[in-house]
Amino acid sequence: MGTLVVFASLGLARFGYTVVLPSMQSNLELDNTQSGFLATANLIGYLAMAVIGGALASRLGPRVVIAAGLAVAGISMIFTGFTESFLPAVIWRAVTGIGSGASNVPVMGLLSAWFSSKRRGLAAGIGVTGSSIGLIALGTFVPPIIAANETGGWRISWFIFGGLALVLAVAALIILRNRPSDMGLEPIGSSGAVPGGEAAKVSAAGGLEWGKVYKSLSVWHLGLIYTAFGFSYIIFMTFFTKHLIVTGKFTTYEAGDLFKLMGFLALFCGFIWGAVSDKIGRRSALIIVFTIQGVSFSLFGLWPVTPGLIISAVLFGLTAWSIPAIMAAACGDKLGARLAPAALGFITLLFSIGQAAGTSIAGAMADASGSFMSAFILAGAVAFSGAVCSFFYRTT
User: Fold this and answer.
1) What superfamily does domain 2-178+211-391 belong to in CATH?
2) What is the biggest distance separating any 2 CA atoms in the chain, rounded to whole angstroms?
3) Is the pLDDT of residue 99 over 60?
4) 289, 319 contact by CB (below 8 A)
5) Do the Cβ atoms of 111 and 120 come closer than 8 Å?
6) Nearest to residue 318, comparing CAs of 263, 363, 364?
7) Would you state the pLDDT for residue 190?
8) Buried b / exposed e along 11-42 (16+ C-beta atoms within 10 A)
9) Which of 35, 50, 184, 325 could form a disulfide with 124 if both were Cys (CB 3.0 to 4.6 A apart)?
């Protein structure tokens, strides 16, 4: 269920914009700066709920917060499909971001509650594959919808995205449970019931020490690393299809196929790299992943012909959601399962600032230069800086 929550809150609510962007931009007569700001509005909404959603989940329990967030995202995506101009689109994309933040951040923290530190990276990695399922579904079904209705296909797509999110909101409310202790269980991978152990930390009802989250230098360091990922990857994902069609001369179907291929590859990256981080440590895994993504983003800008674009997509697909998985696990490692949603929410605030800046800067750079090449090169440089920053992260 956690994987399906990620599918709706990120796969549809965020990455759905990538595949409908060319058609939506044309129909609403938006320039690249405005298109970038629509993505930024969504990310500002996400940012607004990053800390609040995680804190509410720690206080009230993730289940209700997740379901409410998905419902908000679903309704706002439906209204996005009705927009006729730039300003209403900005408003509804921002509200969609609020719903995404209220559902995605708590569900990743929820996984920390259900799994011990020995399995936490793997579990978070499985959860983030929801984004990969989203890429596969989007790349498969959206191009035919848009091809069948060139002026209104993007609207139909938003209606479908919103309807699916509402169905999954109801399912989340029915299926999810806040913590293993609610069902008389220990976290998966723990050695058994031990007084004062992980289960006790998870089931504690009160006495949350919020200062451990906001005053921890390690948490701030994680947030800085996460900011580099947010800034760099969102440029790549938001303008992926647009760059393929305009610069790479791909057709809509060809761009959808490459988007789908990236999704298939990304199906396995989260739990593979999550498990790798369980074995070699969060720090080493982050360095490797950031380096691979730096190469991917740089190639996308520097070698905008078919071989370079495919290699870039493959490299990103192999690492796509690994960093969110590692971050979720690292928060659980640092602060325990009970405070993990709040910690993840806090670093997601910094991550979201990076995202919001990335799309606006990339759109403006594209309008100024006439292409997205320089924006992708910038994304690659920021990803490499993430590897450097990870090198100095202390896991103990």
Assistant:
1) MFS general substrate transporter like domains (1.20.1250.20)
2) 63
3) yes
4) yes
5) yes
6) 263
7) 74
8) bbbbbbbbbbbbbbbebbebebebbbbbbbbb
9) 325
Structure tokens at 340: 């993990």
Within 8 A by CB and 6+ apart from 191, the residues are: 197
- The pLDDT mean for the chain works out to 89
Which two tokens mark 243? Answer: 């760059």
The one-letter amino acid at 32: N
Distances (CA, A) of 32 to 26, 103, 252, 364: 11, 29, 18, 7
∠ CA(217), CA(284), CA(118), 5° rounding? Answer: 85
Beta bridge partners of 188: 115
Q: In angstroms, rounded to a whole number, what is the distance separating the alpha carbons of residues 274 and 281?
A: 10
**Which residue in this structure is represented by tokens 């960093």?**
323
d(CA 273, CA 292): 12
Place of tokens 């920390």: 112
State yes or no: pLDDT of 201 exceeds 50.
Answer: no
Q: Is pLDDT larger for residue 8 or for residue 352?
A: 8
- For 192, the 3-state DSSP assignment is coil
- Which ranges in the chain belong to alpha helices (H)? 2-6, 16-28, 32-60, 62-80, 86-114, 120-127, 129-148, 153-175, 198-203, 211-214, 217-238, 240-246, 252-280, 282-302, 306-319, 322-369, 373-391
